[in-house]
Design goal:
- The protein folds into three domains: about 210 residues, FAD/NAD(P)-binding domain (3-Layer(bba) Sandwich), CATH 3.50.50.60; about 140 residues, D-Amino Acid Oxidase, Chain A, domain 2 (2-Layer Sandwich); about 90 residues, Glutaredoxin, CATH 3.40.30.120.
- Strand 16 and strand 17 form a beta hairpin.
- Strands 6-5-15-16-17-14-18 form a seven-stranded mixed β-sheet. Strands 8-2-1-12-21-20 form a six-stranded mixed β-sheet. A five-stranded mixed β-sheet has the order 23-27-26-24-25, covered by helices on one side.
- The longest helix is centred in the C-terminal third of the chain and has 23 residues.
- Helices cover about 30% and strands about 30% of the residues.
- The chain is an alpha/beta fold.
- The radius of gyration is 23 Å and the shape is globular.
């Protein structure tokens, strides 16, 4: 392993592995270390949402995940006696209009195997013991399980090392937030008595929530709240008998679990750092933000942190873009983190109402709202993270064009050319204009022909599939100025 990689990544969970794969795909040298002996064997984060799958698809390897998971097409909320609401995911405006239910152990396997095929091995039983930002690089000390240590000098360090991040502690960043005052139970095992099997099943019982998430075959994740908690109080892990008793009381008749893979009690933390970067050191994933599992967006948000950072690092390391490009990472992803934290918290609050009057009012409102297709679509887009955009980003610029189509900062709805040229902007618009931009900035831009409504505008699509510049068809000068501000030299 190189003692002086371009990027040192601490943490080989889904976020660190995604970042490593994206950097290596773009020709950047990395080392990725993890203090654990092996990747997780637990289901943990269970879903890859539509937007994350699109990003993997643009990178050329979404298909690697599909055989290891199963599509879920919606969610059903019930009291156990009547259906309160059914939410369909089929309306999501994506080539992946579903939730891919896949155990985190499988997600990590796919990513680690792909990384190994590219010649990079995760260095396990290796802990980041300390680091110092020297201004021109980061000097890090790696401690191995046998007690030996190694000094590594990297251009950049990224902490993808989870909620107890050594990188975050090393930066001295406050992890602001709280631990919710409630106990929760988790069970992962074989379940019978649920139908349909391609839906999430949520029961709003008067005593608390009971939720079922399909994994594969007849294997399901079960989550239930167990009531109030105080201080640092911990609840013992549930037994299979206790889980079956909970399901019998709160769910519909006939639901039974057997042969559990995992039984655990947990508390929910809602915390976030203010900044995702200091100098040459970045944070991504749970190292920067943790939230309620409601909505299943934690891992996806972290993976999207990785996609956002990877292309920016690649362009700066290659000398194609100015280092100032990296200044956009923290404001863009911190805003997304705040939104996910807020939405997950609201879902948790709604699901854990204890007052019978409040519960009845909640059920009535949700049942009424679920009857409107537009609201269903909005909920589906929020869950699948299709509504993420960067309109206030320093990278969002608008020319003279004002009518129709994706605006600056919005998601580009079409598939990008897979892996073409690595981290490049895609110029979309009139042939002459896009050819001119690609010729003037060949390391930064590739040209794509446009038809229909997109031929009447000129856009620069970022490597992560968001519109950077949106202008009129004859806004070539403004588009060129946008690129000139980004380009190195």
């Amino acid at each position: 392993m190189a003692s002086s990689p371009n990027v040192l990544i601490a943490g080989a969970g889904p976020v660190g592995l995604t970042l490593a794969n994206e950097l290596v795909r773009q020709g950047i040298s990395v080392r990725i270390v993890d203090k654990n002996v092996e990747r997780t064997d637990k289901s943990k984060a269970l879903v890859l949402w539509s937007r994350t799958l699109e990003l993997f698809d643009d990178a050329g390897y979404a298909s690697d995940f599909l055989p290891a998971g199963m599509p879920a097409h919606g969610a059903q909320i019930s009291t156990g006696k009547e259906i309160v609401a059914s939410v369909s995911l089929d309306s999501i405006d994506s080539r992946f209009n579903y939730a891919l239910m896949i155990a985190q152990s499988e997600t990590e396997r796919v990513l680690e195997q792909r990384l190994a095929a590219a010649g990079v091995t995760v260095e396990r039983r290796v802990e980041l013991a300390g680091f110092a930002d020297k201004g021109t690089g980061v000097e890090a000390t790696l401690r191995k399980q046998d007690g030996s240590s190694e000094t590594v000098r990297a251009d950049w360090l990224v902490g993808c090392d989870g909620a107890h991040s050594a990188v975050r502690h090393g930066l001295g960043f406050a992890f602001e937030g709280s631990t919710l005052e409630s106990h929760w139970a988790l069970a992962d095992g074989h379940v019978v008595g649920l139908a349909p099997t391609d839906r999430l099943h949520i029961f709003w019982h008067r005593e608390g929530i009971l939720a079922f998430f399909p994994i594969v075959g007849d294997r399901w994740r079960v989550i239930a709240d167990l009531g109030p908690a105080t201080g640092d109080e911990k609840h013992p892990d549930p037994t299979l008998a206790e889980i079956n008793t909970l399901m019998a009381r709160r769910g519909s008749p006939g639901i039974v679990m057997s042969n559990p893979f995992w039984l655990a009690a947990f508390r929910i933390n809602e915390r976030k750092v203010k900044d995702y970067r200091k100098g040459r050191v970045f944070l991504a994933g749970d190292a920067a933000h943790i939230h309620s599992p409601a909505g299943g967006q934690g891992m996806n948000t972290g993976m999207q942190d990785a996609f956002n950072l990877a292309w920016k690092l690649a362009l700066v390391i290659k000398g194609t873009a100015r280092p100032a490009l990296l200044d956009s990472y923290s404001p863009e992803r911190s805003t997304v983190g705040e939104t996910v934290l807020r939405n997950a918290g609201r879902l948790t609050e709604a699901a854990t109402l204890r007052n019978p009057i409040a519960q009845g009012l909640r059920n009535t409102i949700v049942k009424f709202a679920a009857g409107f297709p537009a609201l269903q679509h909005r909920v589906a887009d929020q869950l699948s993270e299709m509504d993420i955009a960067y309109p206030d980003s320093p990278l969002a610029a608008t020319g003279a064009y004002r009518a129709g189509g994706p605006a600056a900062g919005a998601r580009w709805p079409h598939r990008l050319p897979t892996g073409a040229g690595g981290a490049k902007f895609t110029a979309v618009g009139p042939d002459a204009a896009v050819a001119m931009l690609a010729a003037k900035y060949p390391a930064l831009v590739m040209a794509a022909s446009a038809t229909g409504e997109h031929a009447n505008a000129l856009r620069l699509i970022r490597p992560d599939g968001y519109v950077g510049f949106a202008g009129a068809a004859d806004d070539g000068v403004a588009a060129e100025a946008y690129l000139a501000a980004l380009a190195a030299g």
